[in-house]
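My main concern about presentation is that the manuscript never shows what a single data entry looks like. Each protein is reduced to its one-letter sequence and a matching series of backbone shape codes. For the editor and my fellow referees, an illustration may be useful. For illustration, here is how one protein appears when written out as sequence plus structure tokens:
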Amino acid sequence: MQTEVFSELFPLLAAANPETLDWLLSVATEHEYPTGRAVLMEDAWGNAVYFVVSGWVKVRRHSGTGEDVSTLAILGRGDFFGEMAILDESPRSTDVIALSNVRLLSISAQRFIQTLFKDPQLHHRMLQLMVRRLRQTNIRFQLRHQPPAIKLVNTLSLLGENYGDKVGAGAEIFNIPARDLADVTDITVEETAKILEKLSDKGWLKVNAERQVISLMNLQQLNQLGGKR
């Protein structure tokens, strides 16, 4: 991967200087995982930061001592994960599972921490992106009393804006399983299925099971439907 492509693909690295990018590329390791494969496991010690080159993953947490698991987040191309465990030097608190075939780049914890100390711009950019994640979590909290349809529309528009392949006024995202969409939206699977069907009937989205994509027809209208401006 060329340095320019590396920088353009990952917003975290957009502010890094060229020397930093060249060095990170030289020490990065490429991984490929099939659908359903565990990338990281809860309680394992953090030893690397991972960057999503292509595909989709879900971040999940086990509930209590039982077998129930809940999806906390869905990440796509251009995002990263694994940074929290190396920053606070503690075991990982979540699993990361491949939702689709996924390609990743990993950078060891030691080398990534060294890079943050050497490149203040990269350090600052990482803080900005972590704050953005916190803001998105706050938005989900603020939406907790909204109708299920509003909550799901906000989830879909966020996925489209962050990770979707732009198509005209809309975007295409992975056909995420209803259970995972329900978890991250904090609604039931039944509500998710009904709302997706209604949105499809109204022409707001189209589900292509063969291509495994959900086409969000107009992101601006979807944002308005979800109460955003």
Q: What stands out?
A: The chain has two domains: 3-140, 146-225.
